Amino acid sequence: MECLSPLVLTEDQQQKVREVFLDEMRLGLAANPERTSSLLMENTFIPELPDGTENGEYLALDLGGTHFRVIYVRMKNGRFSEEVVDYFHVPSEKRLGPGQDLFEFLADCIAEFVQKRNLGGRNFQLGFTFSFPMTQKSLDVGILVSWTKSFNCPGVVGEDAVKMLNDAIHKRKDLDITVKAILNDTTGTLVMGAYMDKRCALAMILGTGCNGCYIEKVERIEKWLGKHLESEMIVDIEWGAFGDNGVLDFIKTDWDRAVDDQSLLVHSYTFEKYFAGKYLGDLYREILLTLTKKGLMCGGKIGNLHTHGAITTTSVSRIESDTFKGLLEETKMVLNDVKLNHDDDDLHIAQYVAGIISYRGITLVSLITGILLERMQRNHCTVAIDGSLFKHHPRFRPLMEKLISEFAPGRSFDLRLAHDGSGKGAALAAAIAERLEQKRSLTNSN
Ligand code: BGC
């Protein structure tokens, strides 16, 4: 327990995380910040949510992980009446090779989908979920700030992902598609959350990566210069990068440093690396490696623990399920898989470690959620959440409910799984974009 104590957040540390997050938010929204914030606080150019008037056919794309999805939806009076989805595996040479190849691959997938589903011969409005940090100049321009997770294609950072997609689409000559909106998966989840429940004002992804967005008052987005008619706007926080400027180093452990050193994009996405699905398994493995090397478990034998990726986040979730149910079976299997000899004490230690790192991650995300609920001051806020960590880790939902209530006392909220926000949410965003365009042309003609 002494060895693991750096993973336990003290009350003082929790308070400091709160203060630092609030300050980074302020800096991220400021017109002339005195230093650069680690939070992008990006204007998504989505000032409205679904209002029940959405009609017609839309295409949506969802890129963010190893599976790319192409989606067709039909909407009738604001409800989804038909939905078709195809998955395409994105091989590592596309995720790490030249950006142009990646976008041409995406266009090939769209063409295959359109052909297979007999959707050729008509124009489609498309919403593109691109789950990476972007700066947006409008709803259909998204400049990539940096790659994250398992992507690192040269030639895309600093470029507009919509333009690159359009170039690839036009090169093929057999697709008639207008990209109406580019959005982050959290934004899609908020839009989808609002489709399910109008009181939704905050959304997050707790999956391979981690991020959140919320509805902000336009007057507080100081960096958005000029006069604006909109009163509210979805802001993509990009909280995965929280702490990249060192402000969160006071909770960083040697294990976090080890995880970062072995990651694809070192010294970036500090907060995400503390607990997101891409990293939690490795964090766990690094800790067990220390404990075995110190002779504190498994007779001091390290098995395969030195192998990066040998324990996945799914395994951590399985161990946590065991703890939850008072069992040891899954835990045994995970330790056997990495060739660790174990007795019952070792299994309990393994469960304790899984619990402690999960609790740290859940505390961090709950602290931030509490801050946002306080900031928005809604009578009730539905929080839309998607992502494998939230879906499969048995403790995220119950502990988040408990901790958020403690961190934002008296605030009414509920956590709602918004399945497929990044897919259907993109189609809804395309419909919203169309509506905004119509409104604008009406105002102009008047
Ligand atoms: C990306 C975010 C995204 C999150 C969840 C992060 O790595 O930077 O844009 O929302 O993953 O997919």
From TrEMBL:
Pfam families: Hexokinase_1, Hexokinase_2
EC number, as in UniProt: 2.7.1.-
InterPro entries linked to this entry: ATPase_NBD (IPR043129), Hexokinase (IPR001312), Hexokinase_BS (IPR019807), Hexokinase_C (IPR022673), Hexokinase_N (IPR022672)
All residue ranges annotated as the Hexokinase N-terminal domain in the record: 2-195
Recorded catalytic activity of this chain's protein: a D-hexose + ATP = a D-hexose 6-phosphate + ADP + H(+); D-glucose + ATP = D-glucose 6-phosphate + ADP + H(+)
GO cellular component, one term: cytosol
Keywords assigned: ATP-binding, Glycolysis, Kinase, Nucleotide-binding, Transferase
Spans through the membrane: none
GO biological process: one example: intracellular glucose homeostasis
Domain Hexokinase C-terminal: 202-432
MF terms in GO: ATP binding; D-glucose binding; fructokinase activity; glucokinase activity
Pathway participation: Carbohydrate degradation; glycolysis; D-glyceraldehyde 3-phosphate and glycerone phosphate from D-glucose: step 1/4; Carbohydrate metabolism; hexose metabolism
Similarity field: Belongs to the hexokinase family.
UniProt cross-references to PANTHER family, sorted A to Z: HEXOKINASE, PHOSPHOTRANSFERASE
Name used for this protein in its record: Phosphotransferase
Species of the source: Cherax quadricarinatus (Australian red claw crayfish)
